Amino acid sequence: MDAIYLDNAASAPLDPAVREAMLPYLAGVANPASGHGPGRRAGAAVETARERVAALIGAAPDEIVWTSGATEADNLAIAGPAAFAGGPGHIVTTAIEHKAVLDPVRRLARAGWRVTELGVDAGGRVDPAELAAALADDTVLVSVMHVNNETGTIQDLAAIGEHVRAHGAVFHVDAAQSLGKLPLSADAVGADLISLSAHKLHGPQGVGALYVRRRPRARLAPILHGGGHEQGLRPGTLPVHQVVGMGAACALAGERMAAERAAIARRRDRLWTRLAGLGGVRRHGDADHTVSGILNVGVAGVHGEALLAGLTLGEPALAVSSGAACSDARAGSSYVLRAMGLTPVQAAASLRFSLGRFTTDDDIERAADRVIEEVTRLRALAPSAADPDAIAGAA
């Protein structure tokens, strides 16, 4: 039997409607930069997709730059303004950003840039006033994610953006986990740069985009070279089928967002109710400011790796994770949860369930049954270690 898929934050399954939109462009498609008829037709498909992505964030089509995904978009959004600045300055970010932001920021720190990584409260939220206090005369860039990929916590971008705008720094938002799941207006939050991903909202893997504000112009230098594509910011022949898929995914998300948010939140809350009945289960993240599709919980009285192995290898198997996909690949407890005040042991005994468009009520009930069964089994193996009160007080 296939696994019960609850890892949509890592990658959401391709929507069949998106697949159908992509199929005509999988074979025999001309280079969209070519001036002949086939090239112009491919180029027109690319521009239609650009319009669809732009519409989802209230942007103009010429403010969308195609990339290979949100990771490349993040790197361009960090390194681009730094290169344009021409010399070391100051960057403000947070301790819970995705590695696609933290790694390039720390690389700049090694090159002489001054970096401030803001902490978060126990719910995983940044204090806008603390961010404002961190801004300095030489602050070039502020980078804050909209929705955390591990806990689902939503940041107050409007308040943060107001401070950044008043200061005059470039404001970058990683919206990989919020695109199509929450209303997002580039103007309303004052963002200059926004990183976007297709495969988090049931689009294809391998394609994303960077929103680059035109008025006033967000100044950044390219990090790749080899042609004048995408307004000189990102060279290379575009994968038309993937670009078309991202456009189709954004169009679908825009149509369904409100209804899907409500349905997914209902299923997430049902899962939490079932798991909370175990005792000794803690919900990570600010429950009042969390995206509907992510539920991150800690379980007392079990070894984190044993719990994850039991769930992913058992029957029925659950496709869940202990955190971000990049963190799972490296093993170790979540730096996001540790930044929120959890101990390494507590952070290691955590599970991230992420729901999507195709998650069903039956998936939730079967997954809850499976987790309850496995936690009960593991606690019985080491009853002296089972201390539900160890974290229940913070639930």
Which H/E pattern describes the elements? EHHEHEHEHEHEHEEHEEHEHHHEHH
Question: Helix- and strand-based class?
Answer: alpha/beta
Main β sheet profile: 7 strands, mixed
The order of strands across the largest sheet is 2-8-7-6-5-3-4
- As a percent range, the share of helical residues equals 40-55%
Radius of gyration: 22 Å
Description of the molecule:
The strands form three sheets. Strands 2-8-7-6-5-3-4 form a seven-stranded mixed beta sheet, sandwiched between helices. Strands 9-10-12 form a three-stranded antiparallel beta sheet. Strands 1-11 form a two-stranded parallel ribbon. α5 runs parallel beside α6. The protein is of the alpha/beta class and 395 residues long. Helices cover 42% and strands 14% of the residues.
Outline of the structure:
The protein is an alpha/beta fold and 395 residues long. It has helices spanning 16-22, 37-56, 70-85, 99-110, 128-134, 157-167, 186-189, 240-276, 304-313, 325-330, 335-339, 344-348, 361-381, 389-392, and strands at 4-5, 64-67, 90-94, 114-118, 139-145, 170-174, 193-197, 208-212, 281-284, 294-299, 318-319, 350-354. The strands form three sheets. The chain has a seven-stranded mixed sheet, sandwiched between helices. The chain has a three-stranded antiparallel sheet with strand order 9-10-12.
